[in-house]
Specification:
With 345 residues, the chain is of the alpha+beta class. The chain is 49% helix and 7% strand. It folds into three domains: 16-106, no CATH class; 121-230, no CATH class; 239-336, 3-Layer(aba) Sandwich (Endonuclease, Chain A), CATH 3.40.960. It is built from 18 helices and eight strands. Bound molecules: zinc ion.
């Protein structure tokens, strides 16, 4: 892992993979004879979406979007395609054309900026195509790779793992999953993103957590994060989920954020079909409850009551317990299954 990090550090000031074909590649009349203005629009779209990394996406996009029959006819006629792979001919044509016709003029200037996490300088064009699109230029490729794509620290100590979990929990206000997807983090404000990336850069390796604690769940327990997630918020504290829903505990917010990220439509605080009790969420016709304090006799009595009420009205009740927050894949699958559900007749 350290080797990979060293390599990435050496690439901070290098442009990521790109092509530099001579201008004459744009004058290939075998291609120009069928090239249409709307294909230029595709190039413009890629430039806008992927910035300087757009060369990395051309081949795939053009193969997907240009008529296959047209490409086949051209390949059969263009002598260059006997010498080179046709997709390289096409990709180099596209790059030369975008440059010579001014389409590439809309690219942002290449700049040297400082990473918001490590403070090191890096070239904005060192970021790969999708990275630039998804994360902008606030963070260097090294910090992003360490936070999201590399393996994590294989020798992290017990203390450092606990500290890591506690830090994520506090900064993020949710129960952290074992591997945090970049998309989950990038839904939040810049300050929070920076805080999270800073913490994630030093995350422990998955295997190491298993070695030290047995499982992610046990690590969450040892870090007291699940106890914390069970407690309601202090009066007057608002805990806002990413979709704007007000949540009453961090456990609830964790579930809400998971649903939002997975595109599971839900409402908050739906009433039970009878009486004054409310559930935490509703998906389709199913009620969802986060039973954070299960084990307390009064609380357990209330759980029984809610179960009975749901059963009596033929309403599905999805029960979520703190332990379920450790396995987000399984939890999201259970919640997704309720989408579009309608009440039992
Ligand atoms: Zn950095």
């Amino acid at each position: 892992m350290t080797q990979q990090i060293r390599r990435l550090e050496g690439e901070r000031m290098t442009r990521s993979w790109h092509l530099d074909p001579p201008d004459e590649y744009a004058r290939n009349h075998h291609i120009l004879s069928w090239w249409k203005p709307e294909y230029d629009a595709i190039l413009s779209e890629l430039i806008l979406e992927y910035g300087h990394g757009w060369h990395q996406c051309i081949t795939r996009e053009l193969e997907d979007r240009l008529p296959a029959a047209g490409i086949a006819a051209w390949r059969a006629k263009d002598p260059l395609c006997e010498q080179y792979a046709y997709y390289n001919v096409l990709t180099n044509f596209a790059v030369a054309r975008a440059r010579t016709t001014g389409l590439e003029d809309t690219l942002p200037d290449e700049r040297v900026v400082e990473c918001a996490v490590c403070g090191e300088s890096f070239l904005t064009t060192s970021l790969k195509a999708g990275v630039w699109r998804d994360f902008g230029t606030d963070f260097c490729g090294v910090c992003l790779a360490r936070a999201f794509w590399l393996d994590g620290d294989p020798v992290a100590t017990r203390e450092s793992i606990l500290e890591h979990i506690g830090g994520l929990y506090a900064a993020w206000q949710r129960v952290p999953p074992q591997s945090v997807g970049s998309r989950e983090v990038f839904g939040s404000s810049f300050e929070q993103r920076r805080e999270l990336v800073k913490i994630l850069v030093d995350r422990p390796a998955t295997d190491r957590v298993r070695e030290v604690f047995g499982s992610w769940f046990e690590a969450l327990v040892a870090a007291s994060v699940l106890d914390g997630a069970a407690q309601g918020m202090a009066r007057g504290t608002r805990c806002l989920a990413n979709d704007g829903h007000v949540c009453l505990s961090i456990g609830e917010k964790t579930i809400d954020d998971l649903m939002y990220a997975a595109g599971i439509a839900h409402t908050k605080e739906p009433p039970y079909p009878e009486g004054r009790m409310r559930a935490d969420f509703k998906i389709g016709s199913a009620l969802v409850e986060y039973f954070g304090l299960a084990g307390d006799p009064d609380y357990d009595a209330k759980i029984e009551l809610k179960r009975a009420l749901a059963a009596q009205h033929g309403v599905a009740l999805i029960e979520v317990y703190p332990a379920n927050l450790a396995d987000t894949t399984e939890l999201v699958a259970r919640l997704s299954a309720a989408v579009g559900s309608s009440p039992a007749a």
